[in-house]
Amino acid sequence: PRRQTRGATTSLQVEVQSVTMDCTVTSRFAHTVMTSKALNKANSSQEIFFEVELPKTAFISNFSMEIEGQVYVGEVKEKEKAKKQYEKAVSSGQTAGLVKASGRTMEKFSVSVNIASKSEVTFVLTYEELLQRKKGQYEILTRVKPKSLVQEFKIVTNIYEPQGLAFVDATATFLSNDLLPLVEKTVTDKKAHISFSPTIEQQRTCPGCDGTVIDGDFFVRYDVNRAGTLGDIQIVNGYFVHFFAPPDLPRVPKNAVFVIDKSGSMFGRKIEQTREALLAILKDLHKEDYFALIEFDHQISAWKESLTRATMDNLAEAMNYVKNIRDQGATDINAALLRAVNMLAKDRQENRLPERSIDMIILLTDGMPNSGEHNTMRIQENVRAATGGNMSLFCLGFGNDVDYSFLDVMSKQNKGLARRIFEAADATLQLQGFYEEVANPLLSEVDLHYPDNAVDVLTTNHFNQLFNGSEIVVAGRLRDDHMDNFMVEVMGQGFEEDFKVQGQASAVDWGVLYPDEDYIFGDFTERLWAYLTIQQLLDTSRSGEPNEKANATAKALEMSLQYNFVTPLTSMVVTKPETEDGTDSPLIADKLTEEQRQQSERVAHRYSSPSSYMPQLQPTYLVDGD
Amino acid sequence: PHFIIELPDKNDALCFNINDRPGTIFNLVRDPESGISVNGQIIGDKKTPPNGKINTYFWRFGIVHQTLGVRLMVSTQDISVFQGGKRVKLLWSDTASLKRPNMDLLVQKDRSLTVTLKDSVKFVILLHKVWQKHPYHRDYLGFYTLDTHLFSSSVHGLLGQFYNGIEYEVTDLRPGATPEKPDATMYVRGHELNVTRGLQRDFRRDVKNGEDVPCWFIHSNGNGLIDGDATDYIVSGLF
Lengths: 626, 239
What we know:
The complex is a heterodimer.
Chain A: E1 14-26, E2 29-40, E3 46-55, E4 59-67, E5 70-73, E6 75-78, H1 79-91, E7 99-102, E8 106-115, E9 120-130, E10 138-144, E11 152-160, E12 165-172, E13 183-187, E14 191-196, H2 200-203, E15 216-224, E16 232-236, E17 239-244, E18 254-261, H3 269-284, E19 290-296, E20 300-302, E21 308-309, H4 312-323, H5 333-349, E22 358-365, H6 376-387, E23 392-398, H7 404-413, E24 418-421, H8 427-439, E25 441-449, E26 455-458, E27 462-467, E28 472-478, E29 485-493, E30 498-506, H9 510-513, H10 524-543, H11 546-562, E31 570-576, E32 585-590, H12 594-608, E33 621-624
Parallel strand pairs in A: 1-11, 18-19, 18-22, 22-23, 23-24
Antiparallel strand pairs in A: 1-2, 2-9, 3-8, 4-5, 4-9, 6-31, 7-8, 10-15, 11-14, 12-15, 13-14, 16-17, 17-28, 19-20, 19-21, 25-27, 25-29, 26-28, 29-30, 31-32
Helix pairs in contact in A: 3-4, 3-8, 5-6, 6-7, 10-11
Chain B: E1 2-7, E2 12-17, E3 25-31, E4 36-44, E5 56-65, E6 70-75, E7 78-83, E8 86-91, E9 96-100, E10 103-108, E11 112-117, E12 121-128, E13 140-147, E14 168-178, E15 181-188, E16 191-202, E17 211-218, H1 219-222, E18 234-235
């Protein structure tokens, strides 16, 4: 959950009058409005650019441009329909795509418009997302790069959390001792207000200079209070949302098999970083945990033939083994995973593992299978059949050559999740960070029940695990708009005993909670429900059963259109004002898929590589003389 | 002749040489679905150079597009286009262009021929002119495929088999015969090969000197990297 922003970009003849990032978070649902206003001071018309970055987990829900009193508003359309306009724009030489991948977590939205002399333009972009709790906190990141001094610059964040705020932190990478006092933070029990608004003089790199110091990341991090084991259920306007992350649950021991790709392509920094991360991860294992190490290239070898308790002596021995992992050979993912599954299954069968413990496989790989079974769909089928739904598979895809969607689908089919690890100096930390997120399971097989006669359309209410520091969120529509209470039951498997809790959900009176607020944003629970439902439908459309996929896609499209969300199935069409030659030019804002992001990074990587000798994008196959 | 397979996704390239007796014709590309084939004939030096090694080069290419009914024969002397029972002959000594509904040809005098066949392929043939009185070497040609995305998945041939990508891994980097050319082990198509890091030249931008392309060199006529061995690609005629 991050935000990233740039204001309207400038030449000397453009005055950026204001840049405002206004984020309102209501019960983790963030609604951000970015506004930028610029004046063309030149004596002729010129192009003015608006570039902002938004989290890849967010959906754009609105975009508009106001030029000389005329407002041009974006319209969300089915992707195929929008594409026709896109093709028209491309054929007339326009750059029609507005959204590009940017870094690991962001997407860049950029648009330009031709503005008459002495005229103003106002851009407004709105997007929404559900903040995810990771390692015990929610995070809002605003990346600001206004590129020039701005008359009125403002970042404002308002947080409304009926559960009460446990802490709120605001920091920024560009904050000097001079700027630090400008961050205003007001936190009351259930509300926080953070603002940062430097004057034009305070933005200057030095007195009289035109450069700006405002260039970097602005973070707001917070968590909510957690009382009671049932979690927090909020009923608003005929919809409800249930946040479940009970405090003080003991962790469940885990049995983790680490499956490490050491094939030739892991050569160099990647294998070094893998060794470093594994050493740190082993140190963090709890003594109740069991673990195994399997390294593979085109051959598979295990440290030991069964899982081993994480005692000090065993960990020391394992660390020595890890220090000697060397890159070599090709990549046989299929055989490596099946070996891990068999090892866990055999140890379970022979009662070597604690009865109440969670079985997981953590695969780290950087490439496509090119030894043994090559067909990724058959590998998915083999692994799914082998695990039989009895263990979780977490996949770490290292670098840009990895087929991330293959790993993503395979993880989801096996009660796990996948994460991309970017090749960079911090890869070790990325690996450790992912491990920390999943290292401490608190509950497994969590079911959240709501009465059928009360709840109509529900998001996923079964979760394979609840991890320490995370949160389960379920939202639903109520059958009766006026219903203000119903029974809730949560069940799961915890350490030593089953977890079961029942309670009553009651509507909260927002007028009492926030008496001074006339309006927060009234339909947020409904939009949170829609956002969550669409995300889950998109997941099903990629990794579900074949018969589910088409239905899920159709339903996700219908809801994206209904709620005006730019998702991978829809596009936002913005028609720019007519140019001097009398043509108007539609622009399209899309939502990138992970594959598109990865592809763009591959290209970016190539162009940025100093050793790159490739003169063009297309591969060339040639034969010539010496 | 030397072959270079550029793999931008991997920021890497593979290369190998194929040599045989002068006069041998090799199939470079064959796509049964689109009906495209490219064959090339090699020629040797005028006589054995002092180092005793006879180099071979491509001097003639035969290109067929069955669906479009086009045949091209490109040699170091001239370029012939056969279509609809007619023949058009172009000379390397002229800059010329030929525009047809299904085909564009552009000859840059004494330098290159660019061919675009509609909805199928784009390639460049370079002419390497050698001093006519050179005691050993002759003129020769280079063949560069520029756009392969419209070929089918069944495309094959010495170049064509790589159009749909190739999976390989390189490991165990170690000192080679010369310090700047380390050896390594390559795992490809189920084989474990000894390969050498080296340079080959791409002459598109500088037809005289070429530009160095770092690549993994596969020894022994590309054995292990190519499907089968080089003799499997020998054909009896240019068309």
